[in-house]
Amino acid sequence: MVLGQGERGLAVVPDPGRRRPGRGAWLHPSVSCLDLAVRRKAFGRALRASTGPDVTAVARWVTDLTQDRPNDEHEDRKRV
User: Fold this and answer.
1) Considering the entire predicted model, what is its pTM?
2) Alpha-carbon 48 to chain mean position
3) DSSP codes joined into one string, 13-74
4) Of 19, 22, 42, 53, which has the fewest beta carbons less than 10 angstroms from its beta carbon?
5) What residues contact residue 6 under an 8 Å CB cut-off, 6+ apart?
6) Would you say residue 80 has pLDDT above 80?
């Protein structure tokens, strides 16, 4: 995620290829992690934005990813 220009000013923009310029922030592609980040206002702090950025694009990206995946949120975790 990087800070970019959105329809209503500053917005958090998905950057899955990690190629966009600027300060980046990580987010697990799950709705629960997105909700927690929004509640804690983590994007503003992580991306050093003076105001709370719009997260509509990231929310759309996360919901698209979670609809395509099986219901296993933690599939990338190490299995023991």
Assistant:
1) 0.73
2) 15
3) E--TTS-SSS-B----SSHHHHHHHHHTTHHHHHTT-SSPPB-HHHHHHHHHHHHHS-S-TT
4) 19
5) 13, 53, 54, 56, 57
6) no
Looking at residue 65, its amino acid is: L
Nearest alpha carbon to residue 33 among 3, 61, 53: 61
**Residue partners of 52: CB distance under 8 A and separation at least 6:** 41, 43, 44
The full set of domain ranges for the chain reads: 2-68
Q: Which helix (H) or strand (E) holds 5?
A: strand 2-6
Answer for the pair 25, 46: CB distance below 8 angstroms, yes or no. Answer: yes
- Evaluate if residue 68 carries a pLDDT over 80: no
Q: How far apart are CA 58 and CA 38, in angstroms?
A: 11
